[in-house]
């Protein structure tokens, strides 16, 4: 079953949600299957594929590059059967993501040194929810977790994180609204050491990557973290909304520059969005995608796997295709 | 960005060669570039297809205006069509005949609904209304608290029943309260939801049936990609949207989603959100969004405006004057007034590619007062003095300063700057004798970072750089980069106006 593979980590996804997910995807699975149900590989097929990939938010450049690779392969390997071309395209898409996945740093969880994850992104991508899911994820692995309410700007952002903290039974370090994020993070680092927690998840205010001062603020937060643990933050997670278009590429570039993004989480994949921007980012920046958010429940977070991702979003199971 | 699209189009036309009429082939080749620009701006694939077909029909056979290059011509047609699709008129909010008017904000998670409920409330209070904000998002942790906080911060009343009541009931009660307290409009914050979430969409339908809102506005993130269409279509199918609020427009997303939604659903864009502060809500201008989608400053409007203001003859006469060094303060005043007629300076600067965004980023404010002072000083001179500034001695200066309500120092500054300007012009004249330089748009922008010159020299630099209408592109107008004269004044001013968010 494709979705049980997609939710690899997970025990049992609620059947209702799973059905909803599959329903939302059925359209594109069918479209793709239909595309390859022709007698030969012609120019029209490539045009249709271009339309499809662009509509999945891969962007013009990445789409053209993928299709160029496909053309070459078809020529080189003398592929005649459209069904074979379908496999080739799938391979190319997986390969593109895998190349970025290879850049993923091995996560080393040491005793006595908190593993710090700094979560960044533009406004409204789902940072706080992703943090809650990550907290749960680490709890399930038997690690102790602490949260830091570094979003001191948005109204009630601190409360939002506290609600999650209560639900999960995880301590939340916070200051008053409007406080200096650097100061909260400082306290968070200290508390993490004092209480010997394994994982410290730091929430930050959503910021558009075009705001110079706010991006500088992130650099400062980083410096504060490094004062305590030179190799921290071991993970800088950029949360990108699956519905994001080509601007996602700029976001990834700018946040990497300012905050040294190491991993990407694609949030809100439970809609009809294909999250195609992940391909563009993987290709242009080589930043690995590490997590995907697939629903509103706190357990709806999966580790990213290129093959499952491509199948779940584009090709479906064989029975479904 | 802008450079990319125009450059690419220029390349295309250079290959084809200049002709008096756009042929089918020219247009197709150019439209391939336009198509790409639109797709890169996240305009939906299907929408782009239809759009390109419409433009193609208009462009083929069109005469190439003498004033524009073929590349500019194609952009101009594309731009006009964009504006047409985006809606050339502002559609105001609809008010219920029987108050209170109910405004429902709906959309996906994280598009900015709660923030925009507060912004809209603030905006409408500024128009003399007394809004009531309603917290009907009982699902997202602390969403109610967020709206309460925003209400407290900006002194707007907020109705909520915590997170246990049903949203439909909350909204009904809120309207009852608004009626009693004569609050109008009632602006409802709803929970973010996926358009395919059946249960949540039903909830909205129930609210709609129960309170019959006058406005159902879809709050959409400007950064949304191709999905914008399916999202909007589904919300529209179930709720019959009345309008759109496009948020996060202060970033650098092109906002192609707006074009997609607009052309598929047909509802007007009513507001755009341009920041996190409560006053960062602006009415929607199709022109600006059109240029943004194309990734260019509003150079076209600038050119058009300049063309409207300055006749061909006059521009030739001016050019002659500049080149022969007979340009005097009277001509200068004329030009100032012409520029002024084109609109406020900030707005003109916004039209230059790159500049608008840079200005917004730095939060620089440029005042039009400089204009006023310069104008007042020149107007306080006698015609004789304007034609021959050299005769202005100490007592004349004192008289001019008093007459214009400025200081002697300001008069001195203007005179010495004008003298420098004349010197530069004379140099240009000499150079023009040798061989006229290719000026055009690039010259106007001074290449590189357009703000570099601007931050230093403000109005003067801009004018001496060739913002003088006599040198509007295209054409063999003479211009030289050394015409920039640094003057720290405007730079300081810019810094003073920088605002921090916190």
UniProtKB/TrEMBL annotation, chain A:
GO terms for cellular component: cytoplasm; plasma membrane. SUPFAM superfamilies: Domain of the SRP/SRP receptor G-proteins, P-loop containing nucleoside triphosphate hydrolases. Pfam families: SRP54, SRP54_N. Keywords: Cell membrane, Cytoplasm, GTP-binding, Hydrolase, Membrane, Nucleotide-binding, Receptor. CDD domains: FtsY. SMART domains: AAA, SRP54, SRP54_N. It comes from the Bacteria. Involved in targeting and insertion of nascent membrane proteins into the cytoplasmic membrane. Acts as a receptor for the complex formed by the signal recognition particle (SRP) and the ribosome-nascent chain (RNC). Interaction with SRP-RNC leads to the transfer of the RNC complex to the Sec translocase for insertion into the membrane, the hydrolysis of GTP by both Ffh and FtsY, and the dissociation of the SRP-FtsY complex into the individual components. Belongs to the GTP-binding SRP family. FtsY subfamily. PANTHER family: SIGNAL RECOGNITION PARTICLE RECEPTOR SUBUNIT ALPHA (PTHR43134:SF1). This is Signal recognition particle receptor FtsY. The lineage of its organism: Bacteria, Pseudomonadati, Thermomicrobiota, Thermomicrobia, Thermomicrobiales. The gene is ftsY.
TrEMBL record, chain B:
GTP binds at residues 107-114, 189-193, 247-250. GO terms for cellular component: signal recognition particle. Residues 268-281 form the SRP54-type proteins GTP-binding domain. It comes from the Bacteria. It catalyses: GTP + H2O = GDP + phosphate + H(+). Residues 296-323 form a coiled coil. Residues 486-502 have a biased composition (Basic residues). Belongs to the GTP-binding SRP family. SRP54 subfamily. Involved in targeting and insertion of nascent membrane proteins into the cytoplasmic membrane. Binds to the hydrophobic signal sequence of the ribosome-nascent chain (RNC) as it emerges from the ribosomes. The SRP-RNC complex is then targeted to the cytoplasmic membrane where it interacts with the SRP receptor FtsY. Part of the signal recognition particle protein translocation system, which is composed of SRP and FtsY. Composed of three domains: the N-terminal N domain, which is responsible for interactions with the ribosome, the central G domain, which binds GTP, and the C-terminal M domain, which binds the RNA and the signal sequence of the RNC. This is Signal recognition particle protein. It comes from Thermalbibacter longus.
């Amino acid at each position: 079953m494709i979705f049980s593979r997609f939710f690899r980590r997970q025990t049992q996804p609620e059947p209702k949600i799973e059905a909803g997910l599959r329903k939302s995807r059925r359209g594109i699975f069918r479209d793709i299957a239909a595309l390859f149900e022709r007698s030969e590989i012609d120019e029209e097929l490539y045009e249709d594929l271009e339309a499809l990939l662009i509509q999945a938010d891969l962007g013009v450049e990445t789409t053209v590059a993928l299709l160029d690779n496909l053309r070459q392969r078809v020529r080189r390997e003398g592929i005649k059967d459209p069904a074979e071309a379908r496999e080739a395209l799938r391979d190319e898409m997986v390969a593109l993501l895998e190349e970025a996945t290879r850049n993923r740093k091995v996560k080393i969880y040491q005793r006595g040194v908190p593993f710090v994850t700094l979560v960044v992104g533009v406004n409204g991508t789902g940072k706080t929810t992703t943090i809650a899911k990550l907290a749960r994820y680490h709890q399930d692995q038997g690690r102790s977790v602490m949260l830091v309410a570094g979003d001191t700007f948005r109204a009630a952002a601190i409360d939002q994180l506290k609600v999650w903290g209560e639900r999960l039974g995880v301590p939340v370090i916070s200051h008053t609204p409007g406080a200096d994020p650097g100061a909260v993070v400082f306290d968070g680092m200290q508390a993490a050491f004092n209480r010997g927690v394994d994982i410290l998840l730091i929430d930050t205010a959503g910021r558009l990557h075009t705001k110079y001062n706010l991006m500088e603020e992130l650099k400062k937060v980083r410096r504060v973290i490094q004062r305590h643990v030179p190799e921290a933050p071991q993970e800088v997670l950029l949360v990108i909304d699956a519905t994001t278009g080509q601007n996602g590429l700029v976001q990834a570039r700018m946040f990497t520059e300012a905050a040294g993004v190491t991993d990407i989480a694609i949030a809100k994949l439970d809609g009809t969005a294909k999250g195609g921007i992940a391909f563009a980012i993987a290709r242009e920046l080589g930043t690995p995608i590490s997590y995907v958010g697939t629903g509103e429940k706190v357990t709806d977070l999966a580790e990213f796997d290129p093959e499952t991702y491509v199948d779940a979003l584009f090709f479906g199971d064989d029975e479904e295709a | 960005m802008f450079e990319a699209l125009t450059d690419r189009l220029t390349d295309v036309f250079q290959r084809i060669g200049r002709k008096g009429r756009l042929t089918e082939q020219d247009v197709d080749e150019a439209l391939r570039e336009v198509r790409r620009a639109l797709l890169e701006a996240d305009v939906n694939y299907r929408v782009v297809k239809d759009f390109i077909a419409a433009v193609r029909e208009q462009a083929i056979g069109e005469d190439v205006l003498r004033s524009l290059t073929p590349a500019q011509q194609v952009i101009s047609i594309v731009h006009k069509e964009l504006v047409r699709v985006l809606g050339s008129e502002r559609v105001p909010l609809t008010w219920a005949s029987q108050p209170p008017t109910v405004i429902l904000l709906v959309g996906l998670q994280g598009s900015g609904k709660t923030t925009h409920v507060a912004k809209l409330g603030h905006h409408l209070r500024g128009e003399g209304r007394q809004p009531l904000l309603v917290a009907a998002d009982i699902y997202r942790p602390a969403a109610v608290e967020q709206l309460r906080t925003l209400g407290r911060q900006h002194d707007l009343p907020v109705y909520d029943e915590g997170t246990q009541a049903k949203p439909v009931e909350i909204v009904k009660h809120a309207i009852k309260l608004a009626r009693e307290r004569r609050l109008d409009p009632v602006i409802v914050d709803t929970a973010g939801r996926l358009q395919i979430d059946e249960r949540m969409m039903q909830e909205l339908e129930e609210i709609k049936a129960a309170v019959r809102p006058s406005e159902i506005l879809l709050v959409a993130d400007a950064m949304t990609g191709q999905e914008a269409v399916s999202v909007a279509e589904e919300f529209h199918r179930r709720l019959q949207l009345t309008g759109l609020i496009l948020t996060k427009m202060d970033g650098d997303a092109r906002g192609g989603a707006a074009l997609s939604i607009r052309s598929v659903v047909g509802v007007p864009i009513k507001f755009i959100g341009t920041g996190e502060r409560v006053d960062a809500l602006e009415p929607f201008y199709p022109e600006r969004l059109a240029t943004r989608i194309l990734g260019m400053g509003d150079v076209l409007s600038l050119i058009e405006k300049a063309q409207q203001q300055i006749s061909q003859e006059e521009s030739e006469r001016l050019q002659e004057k500049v080149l022969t060094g007979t340009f005097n303060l009277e001509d200068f005043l004329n030009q100032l007034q012409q520029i002024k007629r084109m609109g406020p300076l900030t707005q003109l600067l916004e039209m230059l590619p790159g500049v608008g965004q840079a200005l917004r980023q730095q939060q620089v404010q440029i005042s039009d007062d400089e204009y006023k002072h310069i104008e007042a000083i020149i107007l306080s001179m006698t015609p004789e003095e304007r034609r021959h500034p050299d005769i202005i001695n100490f007592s004349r200066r004192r008289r001019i300063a008093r007459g214009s309500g400025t200081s002697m120092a300001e008069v001195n500054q203007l005179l010495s700057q004008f003298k420098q300007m004349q010197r530069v012009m004379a140099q240009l004249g000499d150079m023009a004798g040798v061989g006229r330089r290719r000026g055009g748009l690039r010259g106007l922008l001074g290449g590189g970072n357009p703000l570099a010159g601007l931050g230093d020299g403000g109005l003067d630099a801009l004018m001496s750089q060739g913002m003088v209408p006599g040198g509007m592109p295209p054409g063999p107008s003479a211009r030289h980069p050394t015409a920039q004269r640094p003057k720290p004044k405007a730079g300081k001013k810019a810094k003073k106006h920088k605002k921090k968010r916190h």
